[in-house]
Amino acid sequence: MLKRYYIITILLLLTSKITMSQHFRDKETARYECVSDSLNEILFLGDDTLRMYRFISKLDSVISAKESKLNILHIGGSHVQADVFTNRIRNNFNEMNDGLCSGRGMIFPYSAAKTNNPHNYKVSSKGEWRATRNVNEERNAALGLTGIAVTTNDASAEITIDLNPNDTVKRWHFNRLRILGYASSPYVTPVLKLNDTSYHEADFDSVTSSYLFKMTDNYDRFSIVFQQNDTVNHDFTLTGILPENDNDGIIYHSIGVNGAEVGSYLSCENFVNDLELIKPDVAVFAIGINDTFAEEYSDSAFIANYDSLITMIEQVSPDCFYIFITNNDSFRKEKIEGHTYYHVNENGDNAREVFYILAEKHDAALWDLFNIMGGMESIMRWEEEGLAKKDKIHFTNKGYILIGDLFFNALMRFYSERI
């Protein structure tokens, strides 16, 4: 009888492993000659595997047991602000974890700052707003994790956000909403408006310096208005919005500002404070393309800035696991006598080597996008295939979606090979 029990147990374990391997088939992608599929892998370059296996274990809890929350922070520049690449990864996790309705992750009303907003959530705004970005030399507001802020003292100011504008399934919802920001006076406070008629006041969370709204039902659309309680109007600065719920799953936070360098985030005064709200288990670093375009670029400064950024993250999440993404190939644009010329960004290959140094130094993983796309001057071939834009820096929607699928496949293989 005991022998029969052990046989059944072994069969169950084998069946479980087979089921998992079948479940994690690669996301199907179109084949392009410009893509080196054989190089699409995430490499672990460190010596200490403790953080890596903490991440693997937590990811497995979400995938296999459908329990626990895994917070992933993906931080970058314009590639990330547009949120095509990162939203593809988010949606791939969502499809894999059918039934787990986790939180959407950090968002920001970019259009209120007169810059491009992701298409996967809709933002509309009223009133007058002043924008501050972490790429500005002169700033009129203190910044946080998102690296961007909008400020208003307009009594008619309002921001409305729909989390599911193109989704009949209504995937994203919340029963708590956090407003990150600060008031210049206690006489101005954010107020939540639901269903265009129901108004809710916030509880100020002094620990995280955020405004928290709690609801008994789930919502996917909301408006924020600002109640002025004085004879003169006062400023309110909004630096981020975090829709939350109690469900387990993978929460993919994408943080990006057009033109941002690594150092741009180091100068955000409330970065660490805001990070307490996320406590990332994994940080995906995709900052660097703008660093290499700077005239004063140096490998040593690039490393030092990343070291400082990691130090900031470890104040909040000392066990955070890091994944570096190398820069894509890119070209510099030059105009001479009315003609436009493009020259390959020679710093691209240097930065790629630096990412390897960083990954080894911080016991981290690395995804070599530069190599996968073909190395130096490969952006030209991606442009010919309709995957990159004419500026030879950014990708088309089709290109970003492909990159998102490639990264997701590499990450899931990285996980399944180690579980």
Would you mind describing this structure in some detail?
The protein starts with a helix and ends with a helix. The chain has helices at 2-23, 50-65, 78-81, 85-96, 262-266, 271-275, 289-293, 299-314, 347-361, 369-372, 378-384, 397-416; strands spanning 42-44, 69-76, 122-126, 130-133, 148-152, 158-162, 174-183, 188-194, 198-201, 203-205, 210-219, 221-228, 236-244, 249-256, 282-286, 321-325, 331-336, 339-344, 365-367. Residues 5-22 have low confidence and may be disordered. The longest helix has 22 residues, at 2-23. It has 2 domains: 30-102 and 248-419, SGNH hydrolase (Rossmann fold, 3-Layer(aba) Sandwich), CATH 3.40.50; 106-246, Sandwich (Jelly Rolls). Helices cover 31% and strands 27% of the residues. The chain has 12 helices and 19 strands. The strands form 4 sheets. Strands 1-19-16-15-2-14 form a 6-stranded mixed sheet, with helices on both faces. A 6-stranded antiparallel sheet has the order 4-5-13-7-11-10, with no helix packed on it. Strands 3-6-12-8-9 form a 5-stranded antiparallel sheet, with no helix packed on it. The chain is globular. With 419 residues, it is α+β, with helices and mostly antiparallel strands.
